[in-house]
Amino acid sequence: MGFKVGIVGLPNVGKSTTFNALTKTAAAQAANFPFCTIEPNVGDVGVPDARLDQLAEIAQSKQIIPTRMTFVDIAGLVKGASKGEGLGNQFLANIRETDAIAHVLRCFDDDDVTHVDDRVDPVADAETIETELMLADLESIEKRRAGLVRKLKGNDKEAKEQDRLLALAQEAIENDKPARTVEIDAEDQKIWDGLQLLSTKPVLYVCNVGESEAAEGNAHSAAVAEMAAAQGNSHVIISAQIEEEISQLDAEEAEMFLGEMGLEEAGLDRLIRAGYELLELETYFTVGPKEARAWTIRSGTAAPAAAGVIHGDFERGFIRAETIAYDDYIACKGEQGAKEAGKMRAEGKSYIVQDGDVMHFLFNT
User: Fold this and answer.
1) In whole angstroms, what separates CA 74 from the centre of its chain?
2) CB-count exposure of residue 209 (10 Å: 0-12, 13-18, 19+)
3) Is-contact 208 120, C-beta < 8 A?
4) Beta strand pairing status for 68-73 and 42-46?
């Protein structure tokens, strides 16, 4: 189960520096956070999770395999992208294939780095991209509704449902609100997701600040934080300059460097985790002497579907899941201790997997 976050941004905001640092850091941490290049602009990055290391230490696992998230460096945005300006068509197509958007915003002042609009205003930059996505959606909605006219005349049930939801999205956009602000009932969610509207995607604002502002941010990042909170979106503060420097260091040197900068962890680790949380994802673990491994599921996933993330046969032949809560596994010093303390549970098909569960699936072949 792969999840993609598209990294977008106007020219000269630090987008490519952020992406390059992200992929180099992941490559440098290959023991715990593997990275592989799928294409020149795609990075598959391990999600940092200290719990995995602790589980592996207790189980004396030979290998540690984190759960993963894909970041896509999406190029080509300029004002007018929705009309094909610059690499607009490619830009919009690439965003359509992602699950969420990480929007890198320039939150630093530097006269040596030009801004495409000759000013530093991250809130205005965010509005530029949002507007392009909404305009592209509006054009798509109008074309699709026009294409449904014949089916609507024939009382096609599916066409009616699509048209109703498209009309809701159109109304929101025409009122200058992205489609993600539309409240959708659970029974409509599948059709709504199938519409693949660009402005439905959740947004993580990445505030790129100067080196001296990496710990606390600045007035620009504060303005972004206020905007994000009002929208129900998320934000994270990083310094692309610092992250680029860290990407060239080994783990010990990086830790020393972060300490000198007054930072507890790399900003990119926060970015990865924020992207994970943005998509409402959770982690469960499988642990043994061979490997300790993290698996990604969406919040609210039942045990058989969680098992299916490992292999389809696990879901089809699901019998039960032997489950230990993470805290119990640590407190009891492993699986055997948890069993003896009565902390291992046999969960059935209706069990909703909790973040941090350590699981062993039993299934029929």
Assistant:
1) 15
2) buried
3) no
4) antiparallel
Measured CA to CA, the distance from residue 158 to residue 185 in angstroms comes to 16
- β-partners of residue 237 are 207
Tens digits of residue pLDDT in 175-223: 999 999 999 998 999 999 999 999 999 999 999 999 889 888 999 999 9
d(CA 161, CA 112): 53
Helices (H) and strands (E) in the chain, counts: 15, 13
Distance CA 106, CA 223 (A): 12
**Residue 208 has what pLDDT?**
93
For residue 295, the 8-state DSSP code is: E
Question: By three-state DSSP, how is residue 83 classified?
Answer: helix
Position 82 pLDDT exceeds 50 = no
Helix residue ranges, H only, 84-207? 88-96, 122-147, 149-153, 157-174, 189-194
- The residue among 203, 189, 72, 186 whose CA lies nearest residue 134 is 203
Residue type, 160: K
